[in-house]
Amino acid sequence: MSQPVSLNFEESGGGLPVLIMHGLFGSLANWRGVARSLSDTYRVINLDLRNHGRSPWAPGLSYSDMADDVLRLMDRLGLERAKLIGHSLGGKLAMVLADRAPERFTRMVVVDIAPKAYPAWHQDVFAALRAVDLTAIESRDEARMQMAQHVFDPEVRAFLTANLMHGPDAGWHWRFNLEELARAYPETSLMPVLHGFFCGPALFIRGAGSAYIEPVDEPLMSRQFPGSCLCTLPRAKHWPHVEDPQGFLQAVRRFFVSGCDSFQSLDHAL
């Protein structure tokens, strides 16, 4: 276990606090649109996880380490309780946080991830990132071209190269800690044991075109989080907040106000 780090974050709005946690290879920049929209009603804390964005690089990417970081940030900001939004890796972290400290979280939104271990689906992404010759490229377009033999989807390549930075002294470099993400990947693919301590409202949002939450996962989700409901966005895949922002925000706002009572069944399609 490593020492907690001071996470980078952006804060906006006022009212009841909402924490937003991005996914693997992401940053708070991916969630600025959602944060801006919710800030008309809530105090939104949009954060970079360790080894991502502008947060410190540190050894360790266990869910326990990341949970320590988030709880430390809450203490630093004087947040006794908050609502949670977590996507993919951040969604697993949200589940760990709610299970570990249920008294500190009033509602939880988990975006396109289930409480289970996953296969090594990102090996092609790691190969694409390593294929980029940081010493030779002159633009993000060149980086995207070098990645194409490993990752065919241009949207995924654009998402990844948004983390490619250039400085007069550092040259081209990744904003995330690629070596630590790769080292920790087998661990982050797993799911820590949950104890069923969070019985509050929990909304799972999945994209209909995504394979991350399957019908066979629904009993597991209900067992681990008895106060849960599931909403499917027909026009979305693994990034519902990007692929269907209107549907995503509609679901989140309804859930934050009325909990799972605003969804007619476990799987409610908007």
From TrEMBL:
One of its GO terms (molecular function) is hydrolase activity. Keywords: Hydrolase. The keyword Hydrolase applies. InterPro entries: AB_hydrolase_1 (IPR000073), AB_hydrolase_fold (IPR029058). It comes from the Bacteria. Gene3D superfamilies: alpha/beta hydrolase. Pfam families: Abhydrolase_1 (PF00561). The keyword Hydrolase applies. Residues 17-244 form the AB hydrolase-1 domain. PANTHER family: PROTEIN ABHD11. This is AB hydrolase-1 domain-containing protein.
